[in-house]
């Protein structure tokens, strides 16, 4: 088991958070993760305002070593992309929110730079046909 620092990206915000890594699981420090996501841990579970999600059936979600972000993503209904060797994790928006947009025929807006560095948002092309090409190096 080793300790390191992870970069957590959520809603365009970047947070540096301590982590504990073993052969099969990465856990980040619980308090900074919950604070960054706007949740608090209470006896009822994870709470945000008056809304609480029970976690009693997930005893391995939060331990002394920290919080399991992949399991947290499942509990909150948010996708999590974790790259332990690169010490980075990205937490996406609620899948229900994106599902409603997509069901309505709308793609979520995003901003990407072109080859010269100028940023373009998908919404700036509203009413025009757009071809998006994505690739991965793996």
Question: Do you know the CATH topology of the domain at 2-96?
Answer: Ubiquitin-like (UB roll)
Element order: H for helix, E for strand: EEEHEEEEEHEEHEE
Shape: globular
Q: Total number of β-strand segments?
A: 12
How many helices in DSSP terms?
A: 3
CATH architecture of the domain at 2-96: Roll
- The CATH class of the domain at 2-96: Alpha Beta
Q: Mind describing the biggest β-sheet?
A: 7 strands, mixed
Structural class: alpha+beta
Write out the strand line-up for the largest beta sheet, numbering strands in chain order.
7-8-3-2-1-10-9
What percent of residues are in strands?
35-45%
List keywords for this structure.
Ubiquitin-like (UB roll), 138 residues, alpha+beta, 36% strand, 12 strands, three-stranded antiparallel β-sheet, globular, seven-stranded mixed β-sheet
Task: Report on this structure.
The chain is α+β, with helices and mostly antiparallel strands. It has a domain of 95 residues: Ubiquitin-like (UB roll) (Roll), CATH 3.10.20. It has three helices and twelve strands, in the order βββαβββββαββαββ. The strands form three sheets. The chain has a seven-stranded mixed sheet. A three-stranded antiparallel sheet has the order 4-5-6. The two termini are 28 Å apart.
């Amino acid at each position: 088991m080793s300790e390191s620092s992870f970069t957590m990206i959520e809603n365009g915000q970047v947070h540096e958070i301590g982590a504990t890594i073993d052969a099969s699981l990465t856990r980040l420090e619980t308090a900074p993760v919950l604070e960054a996501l706007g949740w608090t841990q209470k006896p009822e579970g994870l709470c945000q305002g008056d809304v609480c999600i029970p976690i009693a059936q997930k005893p391995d979600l939060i331990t002394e070593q920290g919080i399991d972000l992949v399991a947290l993503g499942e509990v909150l209904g948010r996708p999590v992309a974790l790259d332990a060797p690169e010490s980075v994790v990205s937490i996406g928006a609620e899948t229900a929110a994106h599902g409603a947009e997509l069901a309505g025929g709308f793609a979520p807006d995003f901003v990407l730079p072109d080859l010269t560095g100028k940023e373009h948002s998908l919404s700036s092309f509203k009413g025009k046909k757009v071809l998006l090409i994505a690739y991965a190096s793996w």
